[in-house]
Amino acid sequence: MLKMKIDHGEVTCKNRNLKAESFDVIKAFENYDSDVIQIRVKIFFII
Questions:
Q1: Which of 46, 29, 45 has the alpha carbon at shortest distance from 37?
Q2: Helices (DSSP H) in the chain: which residue ranges?
Q3: What does the pLDDT look like over 9-36, one tens digit per residue?
Q4: DSSP code of 24?
């Protein structure tokens, strides 16, 4: 039980440090599915 608590603390610490560093997020279109996207368009005319 103590080992699990220590391991969890180490993982939490690493995740917190990685989040704090704000590394650039690399995005790719490998599994991109354009059929899922729905675009809502609202047009307002001001006269």
A1: 29
A2: 2-21
A3: 999 998 888 888 877 767 777 777 777 7
A4: P
pTM: 0.42
**Hey, how many other C-beta atoms are within 10 angstroms of the C-beta on 35?**
5
Amino acid, single-letter form, for residue 37: I
**Residue 10 and residue 4: Cα distance in Å, rounded?**
10
* Amino acid identity at 31: N
Distance of CA 7 to the CA centre of its chain: 24
Alpha-carbon distances, residue 22 vs 15, 16, 26, 29, 47 (angstroms)? 11, 10, 12, 22, 45
